What we know:
The complex is a heterotetramer, with 2 copies of chain A and 2 copies of chain C. Chain A is of the alpha/beta class. Chain A has a single domain, classed as 3-Layer(aba) Sandwich (Rossmann fold). Chain A is 42% helix and 10% strand. Chain A is built from 10 helices and 7 strands. Chain A has a 5-stranded parallel β-sheet with strand order 1-2-3-7-6, sandwiched between helices. A two-stranded antiparallel sheet of chain A has the order 4-5. In chain A, strand 4 and strand 5 (182-183) form a beta hairpin. In chain C, helix 9 (243-257) links the parallel strand 10 and strand 11. Chain C is an alpha/beta fold. In chain C, the strands form 3 sheets. A 7-stranded mixed β-sheet of chain C has the order 3-2-4-5-7-6-12, with helices on both faces. A 5-stranded mixed β-sheet of chain C has the order 9-11-10-13-14, with helices on both faces. Chain C has 2 domains: 2-215, 3-Layer(aba) Sandwich (Rossmann fold); 228-356, Rossmann fold, CATH 3.40.50. Helix content of chain C is 36%, strand content 18%. Chains in contact: A-B, A-C, A-D, B-C, B-D, C-D. The interface between A and D is large, with 53 and 51 residues. The structure holds thiamine diphosphate (2 copies) and magnesium ion (2 copies). One magnesium ion (MG) binds next to strand 4 of chain B.
Amino acid sequence: MVTFPSNEKALGMYKTMYKIRKYEESIYYLFLEGIMPGTIHQSTGEEASAVGMLYDLRKDDWMASTHRPAGHDIAKGITVRAMMCEMFGKAEGCCGGKGGAMHTGDASVGAMTANAIVGGNLPIAAGAALAFKMQKKDNVVVCFFGDGASNEGSYHETMNAAGLWKLPVIYVCENNLYSANTSISLTCCQEDVAAGRAEIYGIPSEVVDGNDVLAVNEAAARAIARARAGEGPTIIEVKTYRHGGHSRNDACGYRPKDEADYWIDQRDPVKNFRKVILEKGIISEEELQKEEAEIEQEIDDAVEYAKSAPLPTYDSALENVFWEG
Amino acid sequence: MVTFPSNEKALGMYKTMYKIRKYEESIYYLFLEGIMPGTIHQSTGEEASAVGMLYDLRKDDWMASTHRPAGHDIAKGITVRAMMCEMFGKAEGCCGGKGGAMHTGDASVGAMTANAIVGGNLPIAAGAALAFKMQKKDNVVVCFFGDGASNEGSYHETMNAAGLWKLPVIYVCENNLYSANTSISLTCCQEDVAAGRAEIYGIPSEVVDGNDVLAVNEAAARAIARARAGEGPTIIEVKTYRHGGHSRNDACGYRPKDEADYWIDQRDPVKNFRKVILEKGIISEEELQKEEAEIEQEIDDAVEYAKSAPLPTYDSALENVFWEG
Amino acid sequence: MAMMSIANALKSAITEEMRRDPTVFCIGEDEDIPGGMGGAFTVTKGLGEEFGANVRIAKEKGFELKGVKDFSNNRVINTPISEILLCGVCVGSAMAGMRPVADLQYGDFLFCMMDQLVNQAAKMCYMSNGGFHVPMVMRAPCGASNRGAQHAQSLESYFVHVPGLKVICPSTAYDAKGMMKQAIRDNNPVLVFEHKLLYGGKRKEAGQLSAMGEVPDGDYTVPFGKAAIRREGKDVTIVANLLMWYRAMQAAEELEKEGISCEIIDPRSLVPFDYETVLTSIEKTGKLMIVHEDHYNGGWGAQLASYVAENAIHLLDAPVVRLAAPDCPIPFSPILEDFVIPSIQRIAEEARKLARL
Amino acid sequence: MAMMSIANALKSAITEEMRRDPTVFCIGEDEDIPGGMGGAFTVTKGLGEEFGANVRIAKEKGFELKGVKDFSNNRVINTPISEILLCGVCVGSAMAGMRPVADLQYGDFLFCMMDQLVNQAAKMCYMSNGGFHVPMVMRAPCGASNRGAQHAQSLESYFVHVPGLKVICPSTAYDAKGMMKQAIRDNNPVLVFEHKLLYGGKRKEAGQLSAMGEVPDGDYTVPFGKAAIRREGKDVTIVANLLMWYRAMQAAEELEKEGISCEIIDPRSLVPFDYETVLTSIEKTGKLMIVHEDHYNGGWGAQLASYVAENAIHLLDAPVVRLAAPDCPIPFSPILEDFVIPSIQRIAEEARKLARL
Ligand SMILES: Cc1ncc(C[n+]2csc(CCOP(=O)(O)OP(=O)(O)O)c2C)c(N)n1
Ligand SMILES: Cc1ncc(C[n+]2csc(CCOP(=O)(O)OP(=O)(O)O)c2C)c(N)n1
Ligand SMILES: [Mg+2]
Ligand SMILES: [Mg+2]
């Protein structure tokens, strides 16, 4: 059984989840409108993982994300305005418009540049964790990856060393059952793709309901405590589901309707946690709606701001190829 | 308990092991003399693995080796003359002098070009096995790799797919306790580096005394039968030891003397199997010495032949960049 | 004759070769998942219907937790996200008599399989002195398309430098079909660069260009090492590949109005490279301009310019001009991406300057 | 002043930088195993004595089945054979404030970490718009030395093409020390190509060349992007790096006797590249010859020749000449290896022909 967090924390987690949900929804519509460039891999449905894992991190702890980074980045503290500006390729984007949807990040809040190479972030996160250890800091790194990424060679090489070196890093496998169009059942002989393959690296692991923010958060707390205490890495596999397609143009024709319905209708992490906090009496329906409206406003403002924010200068295209520190 | 093979087979296995031993010894001295170019990774001490695994393969089964290929290649059927010519960089070498010590191979006996990239041969062997399967042949592939190679990303990617696709390939980890200068205990949290990491791929595994040719051969028979029957891959981890250094210039300063003494004096696969076949009365001491002398002669002849064999033509350097077949 | 997109021309080539030769098979991530994409750009979608696909068979059999085991009637193979494996399996199966055609989704992932490509596929025939050979095709979508630095690269130049690899970059439906067939029949590893904005498949891309074109009905191949003269002219020779020669054509039209006549050459294959056609053109024009989307420093244009400076410098009436992406990763922001990729305007400007020298 | 081999000059640079800056650390396979090599070429041997090494600590503690956990006084880190990990750990630790100096044993294995180098290390600063940067050094021994195709490559040209990487190739003890220090202090990823036949360490190599040289006692650095004129001359400009400029020097001595005077330029760093020094030299000689051990097609010499053809073609009195390994993998047989790698004789011949044009 999970112990219920303070009212403030529970509400805080809910609000961040809600913010991510609304952010992703607004992005979705902006794409439909045809006014947003590029492509996008959305995290709708996976909010509990991002928020549960990152809510208790310090600003100077680090987080490493993937091609599906928006939830992680917002939970780690990048503002929706900086995210939205990046999506529009604007100068005030968190990467000056040069990164884009798959590379959002912000050093000042410990969000490492998101990585669009599946499995590419894994050894990099280990490197950051090694640095913290060499610097005698007690910081930790949380590194997200997908079920599909667990089949990459980088996964094996990284887990082996992270286990050997007892690095302060928490590897979070967001198992959403699919790698792009491919069901994970076709590419790995185990259901617990990461947790089931953790023991050989001497790394403790947990399987967690990834749509229950409290369950994720408790697992996170255990893993963070271990890492800070110098006891090494943890692999956490969160079972979750993306509500939408893999990327912008994906109509999800490869997944059974009843499966999607089940996850979207019954297992929605945002809706379900909303019920919980209302049932617990943490906040009233009206007050919650007010909070939600504020968040929606923040996102609408971000969209409006981003739309008319200045474009990057041509010169900036040639800057920071090498660090200009 | 292993069942003892036919006299003929036992003697045949011994003779191949002896041939490998003498071949490697002669190479060693040729290097000391300073008349052999390049570098070499010798398999002295690991003969039982090569012979036990490969003795029962058909010519049209395939074998994939590493930077330490001589034993495997001789056991698969490359002549010592073709090997020796390759070592001297001569035109009649098994690769026309263009491969060298780390790339020996011969398509006509099913010896794939040896691979000097640690872990590089693993997915290639899987590919050959997939081809056999698609071609409805019942051929198998035996692929050797080292303990160190099991830490490569290619290992993970390959085992996962080989297990999923039930490929007719036998992965043989020659665990000789070291990857170059590094004790395997420092780079992997398990003693059985390959067998201990096989289950997660759904691949059956065995750990075998790699210096007992009969034990290896029995494990090989089981794995070959499974593969031919379409039941998929096996991982066999043979525990063994290289008598000499990692490569030409390695004085082995990193390994304990008592460890080396133990393996070299008490666990020598060639000497020990010699005792066994004499004890079993398969052959008399005198007859055996005659057989051994013949083998030594074959190798001496190969050396003499190779020394004065023709060099490749300059033109050949530019041939077969693309297949001219 | 039929009008086809490049995506369909490729599909048609692969289909026909699979029918012709039972050793040809397709392999890749997201390969022919029913209801899915068919690679990232639809090329292999549906092939499993005719040729069998491990994913289809697994699904039909209600197979859940493991891959399908029988590959004898199964010629479209979906792999885990494992690029080393993907390329290694191509190498090994090719050595053993098959002709794999692999789909990499995005060329940028070539780096994940680089050892298998450069140290294995490209060197195997040579190291074995012809004992083994590696007839495999690796399909790599390339080019900038608003996706950011790790999904935007033009990678031809890296591979031009690898002895033992052939490198082609078809950019019309006709070439796509004919060169893909040629690639599948080649006995060596062939890397095929396909531009994301030229596929013309169902997927819509900002800035995409219709490369629909006529494709003969019967069997035909387009040999490697023979450049295509896309436009004849007499004042400036422009050598450009993939998207860039389309832009050069538009620039040439503008310049035509000003009385400047451009000859536009699409090399189509970079290894082997048809230097002859370029030299013949320079003999006429005396002026060489090279345009590619790949970066400037060490791009394939450098090799071409150098070749001319080594072998035919006397033909040049003016300095060589090279237009390429500058030496920065490709920025996401569309305005910056447009800025770094050579545009019609910049091609026209540079060609104009060169013509007037 | 002390006479030093390149191996020792590198060791001395790394040692001094580790003393100066606590964020500098070494990492690699076979790194400082007591009784072992110290990488493949002795450069890092013994460093753990002063700075701590995970292997040493593990051994002292009688530690058997796991690696050492405490890295705070542990600045020489031995890794499993895992190149993706090795490079990724460099990237991540550099982003987090460390300055890793990695040893790759053989440059040929760069392909095993290519994604981490090209898609990650090189692009991270740019994609984050300077939010993160990656001060790391990757040391890659290169060159042919009778080991066969997978341990013989000259790989500079691949990396010259990667925006975001610096590429250097020091070839004297003085440069080795000064440029290694510069590399460690650089705020970006630096790839260091060290030639196997120039180390001059204890390991003996057929065909090795003594590159012992004087090295100042105090701290000094050699800046990137400044070529060294190894020999002044007036008839032909020869640009050559690593082993090749030594051969060119010998060729020049022969030619001197015939009255042909060669100017020999060692670029030392390929990114950034000192075009200025080359152009100044051509102004004098009117003749450019480029020699590298890397393959011809798309080699870095192509970029240099192209640069000249673009920017200073009027300075040339004759076609550019490029001498490089042909486009084949490096054969093992010493006689073939000698045949493909540019020799003193061939350099002399080609320079002679060029001088007489
Ligand atoms: C090395 C590499 N291979 C392939 C891809 C293409 N690709 C992008 S996302 C994706 C699926 C990833 O699946 P998973 O790791 O489960 O993450 P999810 O998308 O489900 O969050 C693939 C194959 C890539 N980006 N990088
Ligand atoms: C990808 C790669 N990394 C590093 C090396 C250098 N190297 C050659 S052999 C070797 C050790 C291999 O150890 P193991 O796999 O146990 O085989 P063994 O030598 O013991 O037979 C190393 C590190 C290499 N050849 N390839
Ligand atoms: Mg997934
Ligand atoms: Mg070993």
